[in-house]
Amino acid sequence: MMQEGRPVPVLFKEKKDCCACCACMNACPKDAIKMQEDECGFLYPVIDPQQCIRCGKCQKACAYQNIKETNTPFQTWVAVSKEETIVMNAASGGVFSALATGYFKEGGFVSGAVFDKDFTLYHIITEQSKFLSKLRGSKYTQSSIGYVLREIKKKLLENKQVLFCGTPCQVAGLKSYLGKEYANLLTIDLICHGVPSNRSFKDYIHHFEKKNNIQVKSFTFRDKQVGWGKNGSIITQSGKRYKLFETAQSYFYYFAYSIIMRENCYTCKYACSHRPGDLTIGDYWGIQKEHPELLNKQNLDESKGVSVIIVNTQKGVSALQKYGCELRLYESSFEKAARGNAQLNKPTAHQPKREDVLSLYAKAGWEAVDDKFQNEIGIKKYSGFVKSLIPRDLKRVLKRFIKN
Ligand SMILES: Cc1cc2nc3c(=O)[nH]c(=O)nc-3n(C[C@H](O)[C@H](O)[C@H](O)COP(=O)(O)OP(=O)(O)OC[C@H]3O[C@@H](n4cnc5c(N)ncnc54)[C@H](O)[C@@H]3O)c2cc1C
Description:
Number of domains: 3
Bound molecules: flavin-adenine dinucleotide
Number of helices: 17
Helix content: 25-40%
Structural class: alpha+beta
Distance between the termini: 70 Å
Strand order of the largest sheet: 5-4-6-7-11-12-3-13
Strand content: 15-25%
Shape: globular
């Protein structure tokens, strides 16, 4: 019922106060909130004043502004899937796939991010294991949550087991929308250094197609055949493969150097040890330094990807005990993992170039951004390709030599 005399709620005052977790939109009993793109394609909630009944449920559901995370890590693991094909197709060590496989086997539901044919990224919830290959792998652009939070709640109320994986702000949004603990929900948050808008990624792909006169069939942000890092690849409709080196691709470069992230990512409150998920997963950067014994004695191959798992709750402990059998697990510590992983300590730094690049994008599109990038990068663009030619052992020796 309309709460007479009350103003339409203000969902956020500044862009840095909204992460697009969609908790407000899902909480609205009148569907009066829609997500709208700004000039760079970042999504923000907008309330239709005609439909809004001023109940304030949207404001209450906002975890980003209301809730302070208090979890602290009590276990940290080095982890790699026992199945090599999973590791090769996952962004890190394939932890997500191991847990999701366990859920699918038991008739549970899994929620994560998938691309459609036009590279729109959005969250789904499914009990069908055939979607695992689409769910697997990091997509370095913002996933649209849509109304998936309502679907998750429905499954939870039907007593189904649900596994949710997303960025920490998405996990916090889900929990805040639900408003209470559900024993049948397990949440995994990703260590995250920020998200560019999905529109900018799609515009990059379309520009790549135009420039090379091809049609992209599939895209991977991390192609392990090139090693574990920020290099990806494209397969075209005609079967041709393009390797994408971070130093030569505008979108990769601007993502890796945090130049085109969403405004709130630069003040992200989850980039620390207080994480919203039952489990936190990410790359175990610095594994060579922190656990050389695993590379030498346990034969872990860091060129294929190694994960870190941080256990934040008792539920996380139980889940790892139950589903961890698909993983090779070695004990580590939060301090060790955080030494090589900046986003376990603080948010990514705001880059002075951000406004230049994004205002150019808003005015003239990705083509102009790409032209600017290609002009500025010069011959440095070949460095990724050259690095990929150096054998792994030689790389280790060179790194040690440079440090000394
Ligand atoms: C935008 C982004 C930035 C990241 N930044 C870092 C970082 O700075 N440091 C670090 O250590 N790790 C980072 N990661 C996490 C890392 O890339 C891996 O996703 C993570 O280690 C899990 O790897 P995996 O092999 O276990 O699973 P994978 O098989 O790679 O599965 C990843 C899971 O994440 C979900 N997912 C993929 N893309 C998105 C997305 N855009 N939004 C929400 N959910 C998504 C998938 O649905 C799947 O459930 C980032 C991930 C993303 C999506």
